[in-house]
Amino acid sequence: MSVIDVHAHVFPPITRDEARLLAGAGEPWLRQNGDSTGMMMSGDADYRPVAAELWDPAARLVAMDRAGVDVQAVSSTPLMFGYEAEAARAADWCELVNDRILAYCADTSGRLLPLCQVPLQDTELACAAVTKAKAAGHRGVHIGNHVGARYLDDAEITAFLAHCADEGMPVLVHPWDMLGGDRMGGRYMLPWLVGMAAETQLSILSLMLSGAFERLPGSLKLCFCHGGGSFAYLLGRADNAWRNRDIVRKDSPKPPSAYTDRFYVDSAVFDPGALRLLVEVMGADRVMLGTDFPFPLGELEPGSTIRACEALTDEECAALLGGNARRFFDLEGTTLR
Questions:
Q1: What is the pLDDT of residues 275-330, one digit of tens each?
Q2: Does residue 16 fall inside a structural domain?
Q3: Where residue 169 sits, what CATH number does that domain have?
Q4: Residue 334 pLDDT grade (very low, low, confident, very high; cuts 50, 70, 90)
Q5: DSSP per-residue codes, 322-335
Q6: Residue 333 lies in a domain
Q7: 211: in domain
Q8: Domain range for residue 74?
Q9: Mean pLDDT in the chain?
Q10: CA-to-CA separations, 3 to 104, 170, 289, 306, in angstroms, rounded
């Protein structure tokens, strides 16, 4: 049985000078302390302390072996998206990041699957970046769930998703720049605890209720991080609203529950009861192991929630731990480890 983690982040070494490419739009770079610790930087400001697994592939593989993880799909840390930068600069930045991620994954015997990022603020440039990244060896694309006030149902972003389907590039959607920050501030990490879940539910319902799933090709492979956020728990509320309010169903011919076969979610819910509900809502073929490695809000024992969920059969457990990800990333027939 293979164990494949679809939600794992990387911050490859990028210098302060290289980060200036974004010209004030975050300017993320990595400060290494020389002792297997470092700091993610935003311009001249400290952002988050980190350890070598984030930027050192050898350290990552050691951690994966220790945790019993065979393969990780490696995506950039969302701080690196660059969506607030001028589009041409963002395109150059994404090319730099994508090249570094490829180099990070290069000598790992296929155990690290590189996911690219794109300048999502410009559809033409984003589509070109996906095409180029696929040719270079990237196995999927990692995007934030919105660009400013434009969510995934925005016509331009929907066109980008359709292009990903045409290219056969799976899309991993990660919440970022969380709503409600003016009310939550930095207290208790509430933007991460509340805002991330709300952002993800908002993205999923936007695709459903706007009719975007009706327009997007069925071949699109789309996965939402963090268990789909609040979506599974509140799906009954959304269906009830669709049945009883014409303003909710005006653009969607089907209730939200009719679209759960159009996307995947990861398993990062941290509670076997929550995972049981998630599998009941999504189906055991639509949930994949995701840990948020190597950050401390992630699952520190990869797969422990799946293995502790007594409602899952052995076959379903194997599907969540790796079988579904094999299909998502077209790894069928590939020998892992």
A1: 999 999 999 999 999 999 999 999 999 999 999 999 999 999 999 999 999 999 99
A2: no
A3: 3.20.20.140
A4: low
A5: IIHHHHHTT-TT--
A6: no
A7: yes
A8: 4-11+68-328
A9: 96
A10: 20, 19, 8, 11
Q: How many independent structural domains does the chain possess?
A: 1
Environment class of residue 196 by beta-carbon count within 10 Å: exposed (0-12), middle (13-18) or buried (19+)?
Answer: buried
Q: Is 213 exposed, middle or buried (0-12, 13-18, 19+ CB in 10 A)?
A: buried
Write down the pLDDT at residue 121: 98
Residue 96 covered by a domain: yes
Query: CA–CA separation, 12 vs 101, rounded Å?
Result: 6
Name the residue with tokens 């690290």.
Answer: 112
Q: Which residues of 101-126 are buried (b: 16+ CB within 10 A; e: fewer)?
A: bbebbeebeebbbbbbbbbbbbbebb
pTM: 0.96
Helices (H), the chain: 16-19, 57-67, 87-105, 123-136, 155-167, 181-184, 190, 196-209, 212-215, 231-244, 246-249, 272-282, 304-308, 314-318, 324-328
Give the whole-number percent of the chain exceeding pLDDT 70.
98
Q: Give the CB-side neighbour count of residue 272, counting CA atoms within 13 A.
A: 11
Which residues on neighbouring strands pair with residue 116, listed in sequence order? 141
Phi, psi angles (nearest 5°) of residue 198: -70, -40
